[in-house]
Write a structure and sequence with these properties.
Elements (H helix, E strand, L loop, with lengths): L2 H21 L3 H12 L2 H22 L6 H18 L8 H17 L11 H18 L4 H8 L5 H26 L8 H22 L4 H28 L3
Length: 248
Amino acid sequence: MTIAMAAGLGLLMVFTAFLSGIFGMAGGMVLIGVLLFLLPLPMAMVLHAVTQMASNGWRAILWWRHIQWRITVFYVLGCVIAVGAWSLTLYVPEKAVALLMLGVSPFLLRIVPERLLPATLGPVQAIGGGIACMALMLLTGVTGPLIDQLFLRSQMNRRQIVATKASCQVFGHGSKLLYFGALIEQTGSVEPWVLAMAVAASMLGTSLGKQILERLSDGQFRMWAGRLITVLGLYYVGYGLVLLTGIA
């Protein structure tokens, strides 16, 4: 990785962490798209996992008083079940498939009948959500709209959503790092200084985003989060189709 590429990625990581610092989402979707364009999928997954662990970990520390630990524990249990099942196959998708699944996921959720979606976020929903979100993360690198839908439908306020989601995502991305960094062969290596830069950039962007979140109302938070996910979903569907059809 050249110095210029690393500097560009550093700025991108500050921006994506800033975005996630406000909404607790979307930043990871932007970052994984760029990393998948620049790097082989396993290497992109490793660098993304380290970046997101730093971003979510720092966000969880900043908002630790608002974390709903009961939900976190059940969600992590679901993640463990998913990783255990996935490790039996060690499947790694093609970039085009990963991008298509990432982009389509928010729209698939919207066509599911309202009566079939969880009306609240209890232990059963948290375990089921952990399994589904971890499976999607191992396919695409992020849980994206799936975990967002899970939390936005809860009765938690915006601070509790951001804090609890961050605590869940630390474990989720840690599991992804284990899967792609230790279980998948020929992952490749990312220079330690690049990882250190990723951690620092993520912490900076997250801290800046916290200031904006404080100024939003719960209604504004939910409205803009939904719009952002829709735009990103459409982009990744188009990007995946371009790769799949061989246009670029």
